[in-house]
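In the design runs reported in the main text, the only information available to the sequence generator was the tokenized backbone. The following block is the verbatim input for one such run; it is reproduced so that readers can re-run the procedure and compare outputs position by position.
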């Protein structure tokens, strides 16, 4: 299936989820992350969910990270060039929902991509090869291209992998793994 068709399919599937289902599935995903060997790092990038898009509630993951005394970074979008700034989330960080429905830090301490060791990546769909489909603006591909090769790229999805995504281009950055409520997929990059 091509990216456009997958976007439509998974937006529709997500739109049918209740808030209770989203919270339960999000908690299942967070629990599946616990046994992974990713917790010896310091800097973790976590997206803040767009509630109107019924994205995964990352609050559960952030509780784990704060409980382990990790540095949590959240993105701030630049729509002029489709890049992200990575702001350290602290008790005093003020968040504001932008015009796209994305909660973002108003200001704060920016951290460069070379320090980021683990990235939790939003997506609409992914395949058995670690390719992903987002909203199509390239924010995460632009961001991940600037990260160290050792940075662990973890997709988060409510749904299982597609067999294959058609239309993958060289600038599409593959996942290292993807965690769903029922399974963890590992990809060789």
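Verbatim output:
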């Amino acid at each position: 299936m091509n990216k456009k068709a997958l976007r439509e399919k998974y937006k529709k599937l997500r739109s049918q989820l209740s808030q209770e289902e989203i919270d339960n599935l999000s908690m299942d995903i967070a629990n599946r992350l616990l046994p992974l060997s990713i917790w010896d790092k310091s800097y973790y990038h976590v997206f803040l969910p767009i509630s109107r898009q019924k994205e995964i509630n990352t609050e559960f993951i952030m509780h784990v990270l704060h409980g382990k005394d990790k540095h949590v970074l959240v993105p701030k979008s630049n729509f002029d060039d489709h890049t992200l700034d990575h702001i350290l989330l602290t008790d005093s960080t003020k968040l504001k929902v932008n015009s796209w429905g994305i909660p973002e830090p108003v200001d704060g301490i920016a951290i460069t991509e070379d320090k980021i060791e683990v990235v939790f990546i939003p997506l609409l769909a992914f395949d058995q090869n670690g390719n992903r489909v987002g909203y199509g603006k390239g924010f995460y591909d632009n961001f991940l291209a600037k990260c160290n090769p050792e940075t662990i790229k973890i997709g988060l999805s409510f749904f299982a992998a597609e067999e294959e995504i058609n239309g993958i281009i060289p600038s599409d950055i593959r996942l290292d793994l993807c965690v769903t409520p029922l399974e963890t997929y590992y990809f060789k990059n």
